[in-house]
Amino acid sequence: SVRHVCDARGNFARIPTPKPLVAAMSSQPEPWTENIVLMSDSYKVSHYKQYPAGTEYVYSYFESRGCDNEGWDSVCFFGLQYFLKRYMIGQVVTMEKIEEAAELYEAHFGDKQMFYREGWEHIAQNCGGKLPVEIKCVPEGMIIPNKTVLFTMVNTDKKAFWLTNFLETLLVQVWYPMTVCSNSRFQKLSIHKYMKKTGNTEWATPGGVGFKLHDFGFRGVSSVESAATGGAAHLVNFLGTDTMSAVVCAREFYGEPTAGFSIPASEHSTITSWGREGECNAMKNMLEKYPKGIVACVSDSYNIFKACEDYWGGELKSMIEQREGMLVVRPDSGELPDIVLQVLEKLEGRFGSTKTPTGHKLLPPCIRVIQGDGIDIKSLDMILNAMTDKGWAADNLAFGSGGALLQKLHRDTQKVAFKCSFAVVNGEGVDVVKDPITDPGKKSKKGRLTLELQDGKWVTTVEGQGDASKDQLVTVFKDGVLLVDAKFATIRERSNCGL
Length: 499
Hints:
Elements: E1 2-6, E2 12-16, E3 55-64, E4 74-76, H1 80-88, H2 95-109, H3 117-126, E5 133-137, E6 143-145, E7 149-155, H4 163-166, H5 168-171, H6 175-197, E8 213-215, H7 224-235, H8 244-254, H9 268-272, H10 279-289, E9 292-298, H11 304-315, H12 317-322, E10 324-330, H13 338-351, E11 354-355, E12 361-362, E13 367-371, H14 377-389, E14 397-401, H15 403-406, E15 416-425, E16 428-431, E17 450-454, E18 457-461, E19 474-478, E20 481-482, H16 488-495
Parallel strand pairs: 8-14, 9-10, 10-13, 13-14
Antiparallel strand pairs: 1-2, 3-7, 3-15, 4-6, 5-7, 5-19, 11-12, 15-16, 17-18, 19-20
């Protein structure tokens, strides 16, 4: 059967009516099979006709073209391996998937000839269903300046010249874990700076910065996959998370048995369900149910100051001091940075403090504070600066961050781009460049690229002029095979550059 649609000019076209989707009641989750043939912007399906006749190879690269955030002069590269393992390894193109794609593209475009069936069938039948491309990249975890090549991709089969940029849509999604990882790292640098400035002496885990920024972001992201990849990116820099999909991601795709850790902690429902008059009992219950180790308790359900002075610093003070572990008090409302300073002052009034080697005040080891409301890179730095000015050591405080850590970013945060820089047409190499007069910042790099360390600085050499023996880009994927399986522990070590 067919149906008619009208375009913007008033012309009618006849297109096939897609098969009806049958909704069936089931007690099982709906199965989902990935189809690489459908994992691109649909306009790219038409591009095989648009390259010059005789095109054999298309070579493209991925970079951050810069960032408008002050101080964000580099990226911590992370996440490519996830996408390679998740979507591209092995036989990912089959005749069944081609048939599915052909049917959907015909309905989508209203044109049976738009889809390049012949090209995909070549991959299925002559390449074993494996994607004939080669990808070279910066080792994950490395800190690389903006405007520097991060990975390159080129087809390895002349008949698949169109495939390189078809895969752009999927692989440019590396922008997300890379940007989260970079954002998280800049916050790590800030915390480290203030801890050093205010006299911290204990740097070995669990001391130091490892547990100072906790991931609260699972509920605030757009998908479970975002939580997994973004959460894993944060764990490159820190050890604390409540995002379990991130721990699974690091285990399944990066070989880390347990990348992140957490503690028992309350939420408002577990405190307010005791009623206003029962708040102190609810807090006491936390200490009794978790008699050892670190435990965190939200304390602003009614009156944060009463909680600090009368409950934690009054009725429950001796329990806290005699307990084998640490109580972490969590305010969850109030103006920043004032609320943090006020809570520290209230707790000091009941528990006292000592001085660090730099003369900054430090609460006793049985009690600390975590601020998880309104935390992003700017408020984090503002709070730590205010604490320093008021004579407080940074070690008194940990942070939790959710949406600002995993969600309040986008592809243009780091101005990520994937551009063709070289092609082979009828056996001749052609340097390719984009150079719009309306935006010089979008000028692309030209020719084959290498990444080299010259006089201690990372430099992208262009137009095939680089020294291949000095190229720091590593071949990680070729013709459906993963050639480098990076481990999370190694990535973490690389990311510590500059600390």
